[in-house]
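Troubleshooting: if your tokenizer reports a length mismatch, compare your output against this known-good record of 431 residues.
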Amino acid sequence: MKLANKVSIYNVLISTLVSSVISLVLFYQLLERENKQELKHHVRIVSLRIKNGLNWKVLAKDPNLSIDLIAEQEVAYLRPSFSKVKTWHKPPPHPDYIPETKRHKLGPPRMKKKSKIIQDVRVKNQWYRISFTKGIVSPKDLLRVSFFNSLFLFLLLLTTLYFCNRFLFHRIVSPFFDTLDKLKTYRISKQQAQAFSPSNIDEFNFLNETLTEFIRQSQEEYKRLKEFSENAAHELQTPLAIIKSKLDILVQSPNLKEKEYQIIEEVQQTLHKASNLNRTLLLINKIENKEFKASETIDVKKVIEQSISIFSELAELKKITLTTTLENFELEANRHVLDLLFNNLIHNAIKHNLVGGTIHISLSHRKCTITNSGKPLLNEPETYFLRFTKGNQGESSTGLGLAIAHQICKNFNYEINYQNIDNQHIMKILF
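Known-good structure output:
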């Protein structure tokens, strides 16, 4: 769920809950206050009628009204006293025209709640104790009558609050979303300064300042690390080249014994492996830094055919049968990177194949599959995309071939998948 929706829903729910509780409390208080005002008003009317000469005994005939003469020393209710009383409400007498079989529908006597006021008033030097009872309108009845109107207003309130919250939320946090959009497109390899939009909210400004400083430090660290990697890789080439030339001179010496020749040959093999490892790590570093861009339209079929021609002699030495099913397909890519990709995959398919094995390469629209025979895998197929992972630790391979292929596919948004079915190694690439 998006942040805006979640905040809006929580605000609406909390606002609705609080407003509902407050409304119910106010509703009952206003109902009680209105009831008391009506009782006091009725007492005032009775007092005015007595003052105007109406006999109080006539007024007292009202079943809800009680009037008593009291002495001045008996006065106890100068201020009105309110209370709740319960009375039995009897149904009206059964009219003769209602059949006996239907009279039961009028119902039995029911308990009814009423409000009562008692107040002592003085009229023409005479004290009267006036007591009046009045039926209470049930809050449930009022709620039942106004339910649909209240429901409509309630839904209108919810809808209004939701959209108002969304609108205000987007207005308030728009600098935050602007910052997120800029972070999505930011690439540390471009080494560009990142400017965030100013805001009138202190927290957002503090976030932008923190991010700006973090990006500045990250760029400096990235630059130092990149320079170190490049310098180390290039500087290592010089001593490796010197060692190789010295070994070449040493191997030409006529005084060397057979065992010394073997030692020198092992050193040369190790030196060659170290040189290849150095160049490969430098290449992976450049790929990760996205220094290769998709700059031209390339015929993928021709690239695969050229890679096959490069390794055809190696395949013949292992008596490998190599077949192809290639369709014409063009791709917007970098030629050097695409050469690296297919060279690594085809070389890997030959190197780890069986003597007299098979390789089949197929190319269709946006899909390339390389299938080769080989030994059973010792690990899960996905682990061979990791650096320095080899099927056999005794092999001279650096364990970086598939790592390079995986990094190329990742950087150029290709999908690469490795499967092993019945000792058939299947590498699929979706462009």
